[in-house]
């Protein structure tokens, strides 16, 4: 009987998991989650989610007689030592989705190779293999529609594979395993100490079952109208599946296939196009690894930002005086989530009205979103700030008042998250308050008036044009 060491990162599922499938088909499997900087998310909300996701996966493994442990400080050497300790003749994993994970893949491969241990690195939780949309000269496609078209030209993504029926664990000596720095999932403490994450429990259950339940409900009831509802803020009109996708609890290929079964009309088409934005973000971050911190368009390196700590704090706390922005930022703080339309509005206000660098906003999102995902977040911020690939042109500056009226016409979203404004009339709910109202309502006047902000942003843009 052969033994395989299976490494897990952002693929915390049993269904359609190519590495697990391969490992199970070979014989006994020990599965470890890699605790290292390339894998464990830095942000509080995402760590809270990860903690629940690992516990849920542990239960799913146990139900199939498998064993899941966490490998602390998972350096390539520790991985090699663990493989030797359990007598594994192959190490298998799904490859990384971020530049840091891909670097870590290379280091692990090198270590195993030089110690003559076989390894299989399979595709990550993406729809298409790396390079699928590259131009003939090998250059990546930088425009979303061209990228999508090139992927579609290659046909549908590969079919998902079914979950294994049982997972055979090797006979393991617990003491030896502990000496190798593996710990039981129940003993793994990853949740942040900060009490704010406790409110996340009121809004989410980060388990595999709940992810499948959300997906089922969306595919049965909501996908058909997704093209109409996806920008709705209250009730939220999108799938809210992003955290389960982020941690690979849901397979993107399974979701794709099930969405095709559920809807081939406009709703399904637009939904799959959004899934392709995830794909685009993922391929682009790998093609442009520096984009996590540096603008894709070089001219933005000289952009005259006006960074301000007090301004940034007002934004994070939902005290900008723009009701839609404040509702969204408080929504984020309380639940670890914000709909895409709201993400675009708050990112636009931070970078264009306030002229605060997009990287600060991106870091805040990485800390507070339960779906904090480096590729999607980098793309979203660079896109909104106007400095990224296929981005919104810088000179198109969202008006937070008209955006609010358009996407939250009755003000339900604002009333839910900004109770100071709950008695305001629908007609003015998105308007800034006057200084007198500010006093009586206990809600601030805007950080900067919209027209003045717009003129100032355009002037700043002129400086780098
Ligand atoms: C400034 C900014 C920051 C963002 N940060 C993140 C992030 O950290 N993590 C994250 O998962 N998404 C991020 N997004 C993308 C998008 O906002 C979320 O994926 C989406 O709101 C999640 O909600 P949903 O699952 O209901 O989406 P749905 O509308 O149901 O879309 C289905 C899936 O498609 C993908 N998707 C949808 N829109 C986008 C998009 N614009 N870019 C990339 N993928 C997309 C997501 O995986 C999503 O779950 C960001 C967008 C912006 C503008």
Q: Judging from the principal axes of the Cα atoms, what is the shape?
A: globular
Range of helix content: 40-55%
- The largest beta-sheet arranges its strands as 5-4-1-2-3-6
Question: Segments where pLDDT lies below 50 for 5+ residues?
Answer: none
Mean pLDDT: 96
| CATH C-level label of the largest domain | Mainly Alpha
Class by alpha and beta content? alpha/beta
| Biggest beta-sheet profile | 6 strands, mixed
H-E string: EHEHEHEHEHHEHHHHHHHHHHHHHH
Number of domains: 3
Q: How does CATH name the architecture of the largest domain?
A: Orthogonal Bundle
Write the layout of secondary structure elements.
Layout: E1 2-8, H1 18-26, E2 27-34, H2 44-63, E3 68-71, H3 76-85, E4 90-94, H4 99-114, E5 118-122, H5 144-153, H6 174-179, E6 182-184, H7 208-222, H8 226-229, H9 242-246, H10 252-262, H11 266-287, H12 309-317, H13 323-335, H14 340-353, H15 358-368, H16 374-385, H17 400-407, H18 412-417, H19 435-441, H20 450-462
Parallel strand pairs: 1-2, 1-4, 2-3, 4-5
Antiparallel strand pairs: 3-6
Helix pairs in contact: 3-4, 10-11, 11-16, 13-14, 14-16, 15-16
Bound molecules: flavin-adenine dinucleotide (FAD).
The site of flavin-adenine dinucleotide has 29 residues, from helix 9, helix 11, helix 14 and helix 16.
């Amino acid at each position: 009987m052969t033994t395989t060491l299976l490494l897990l990162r952002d693929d915390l599922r049993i269904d359609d998991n190519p590495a697990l499938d391969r490992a199970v088909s070979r014989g006994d499997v020990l599965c470890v989650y890699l605790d290292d900087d390339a894998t464990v998310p830095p942000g509080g909300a995402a760590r809270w989610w990860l903690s629940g996701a690992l516990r849920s996966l542990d239960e799913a493994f146990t139900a199939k007689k498998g064993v899941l442990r966490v490998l602390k400080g998972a350096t390539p050497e520790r991985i090699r030592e663990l493989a030797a300790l359990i007598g594994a003749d192959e190490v298998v994993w799904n490859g990384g989705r971020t530049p840091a994970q891909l670097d870590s893949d290379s280091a692990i491969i090198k270590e195993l190779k030089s110690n003559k241990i076989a390894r299989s690195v399979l595709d990550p939780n993406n729809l298409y293999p790396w390079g699928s949309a590259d131009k003939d000269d090998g250059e990546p496609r930088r425009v979303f529609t061209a990228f999508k078209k090139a992927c579609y030209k290659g046909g549908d993504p590969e079919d998902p594979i079914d979950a294994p029926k049982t997972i055979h664990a090797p006979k393991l000596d617990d003491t030896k395993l502990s000496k190798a720095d593996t710990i039981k999932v129940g003993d793994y403490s990853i949740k942040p100490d900060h009490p704010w994450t406790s409110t996340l429990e009121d809004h989410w259950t980060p388990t595999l079952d709940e992810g499948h339940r959300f997906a089922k409900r969306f595919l049965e009831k909501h996908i058909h109208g997704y093209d109409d509802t996806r920008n709705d803020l209250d009730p939220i009109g999108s799938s809210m599946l992003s955290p389960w996708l982020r941690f690979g609890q849901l397979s993107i290929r399974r979701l794709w296939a099930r969405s095709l079964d559920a809807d081939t009309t406009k709703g399904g088409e637009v939904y799959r196009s959004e899934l392709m934005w995830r794909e685009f973000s993922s391929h682009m971050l790998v093609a442009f690894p520096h984009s996590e911190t540096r603008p894709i368009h070089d001219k933005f390196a000289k952009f005259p930002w006006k960074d301000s700590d007090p301004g940034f704090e007002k934004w994070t706390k939902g005290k900008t005086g723009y009701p839609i922005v404040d509702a969204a930022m408080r929504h984020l703080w309380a639940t670890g989530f914000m709909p895409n339309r709201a993400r675009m509005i708050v990112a636009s206000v931070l970078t264009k009205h306030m002229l605060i660098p997009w990287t600060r906003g991106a870091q805040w999102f990485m800390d507070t979103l339960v779906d904090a995902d480096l590729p999607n977040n980098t793309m979203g911020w660079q896109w909104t700030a106007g400095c990224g690939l296929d981005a919104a042109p810088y000179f198109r500056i969202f008006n937070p008042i008209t955006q609010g009226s358009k996407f939250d016409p009755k003000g339900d979203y604002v009333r839910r998250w900004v109770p100071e404004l709950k008695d305001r009339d629908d007609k003015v709910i998105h308007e800034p308050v006057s200084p007198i109202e500010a006093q009586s309502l206990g809600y601030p006047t805007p950080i900067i008036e919209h027209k003045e902000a717009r003129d100032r942003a355009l002037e700043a843009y002129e400086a780098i044009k």
